[in-house]
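TEACHING EXERCISE
Course module: macromolecular assemblies
Task: Read the component lines below, then compare them to the predicted structure of the full complex.
Student: A.B.
Group: 4
Components provided:
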Amino acid sequence: MLSYQQARELVIARVQSISATPAAESVPLSQSLGRVLAGEIRSDRDYPPFDRSVRDGYAVRSADTYPGAHLKCIGELKAGDAPSVSVAPGTCVQIMTGAAMPDGADAVIMIEHTAREGDDVKLDRSLTAGQHVVRKGSEQSSGKTILQTGTRIGFTEIAAAAQVGAAYPSVFRKPRVAILTTGDEIVDFAATPGPFQIRNSNSASIAAQTSLLGAEPVLLGNAKDTSQDLRDKISAGLEHDALIISGGVSMGKYDLVEPVFRELGAEIIFDAVAIRPGKPVVFAICKGKPFGTQGKPVFGLPGNPVSTMVTFDLFVRPALEIVSGAEPSALPFFEAILSSPLSEKPGLTHFLPAELAWPDGAPRVSPIPWQGSGDVVAMTRANCLLVVPPDRESIEAGERVQVLPRGLF
Ligand code: AMP
Ligand code: MG
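Instructor-supplied answer key:
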């Protein structure tokens, strides 16, 4: 059986091989959060656009400075002022953070390091040339690329784009991701369930995970556990850029998703991964009539809600990143010290809901008691997944383990 790393590599390689560059559109910068840049953004001018003081103090000639030196203050510059004064030997200009440096001056002494009486300024130290000054163009020179195509826009990228006046960045069209749940027992979460019915939480969580990736969820509702209903709804789902199905991928008599994939001519890339939760996870490529020649990624995720969300983050996420025009992101592992011993079935990588805390400054992690992959409420108490490798039957308290932050994750 594939390890989760092998399965991720297969997803990434296969989705890359079928994905064309998405179409581009321009959006207002204020609406670009989470979108993926379809073109690079360049600096429209040197930045900073002038030699800029980064302290409140006095603009001086560094050659004039020594402990006990006296300089004559000949003017004042605040941010936004044109620096019309010029600093001659023996003089200085009071300057504020963000103001342009006057001619003649090459350093700024902080106000805290001076004493002033009238226009006399006494210094308590010497300065080197360039101290507390950021030179024109030292952060970015005009015309230089500041954000590459394929970059996901976060608030920092919004600041950088705003700085260079990119008010309508070109971004890739959002992929439309069809979401289908399955199960005769499943009812809409707004409905009142019968005694043996289950509310549809997967449809809501898959849509939320899809939206967080900047893709557009298209809800197809729930299919009955019949070949006919699955065939119809899966075929409808394949009109979109990708299809995610939950449930119906285990070994039960009514787990019909994989047989229907095969009937529809899908190429099954894998149908099991050595993980818990989430072992019976299916990844397939559907291509040919009527699904297009390129091929579309299709996932059959196990129906237990925690399995659904963990397998989404491990396998669907990189696929949707690629379909969005971005690079697939690596899993953000970090290390923590295990607080209490644990033992899990070997041969599988376990992703256990766990709590990470820093009680004494060091990261410590403890598993959260849970009833297994249906226990989504236990998962809400977790802030990370503790990763138990397949070759470890037990791990002692005090050992270092890997964790993944919950919800990327
Ligand atoms: P399955 O993978 O279809 O065998 O389902 C496994 C378990 O997950 C069953 O207990 C289902 O009732 C539950 N389940 C399946 N689909 C959903 C869903 N959409 N929302 C909430 N629970 C589900
Ligand atoms: Mg089912």
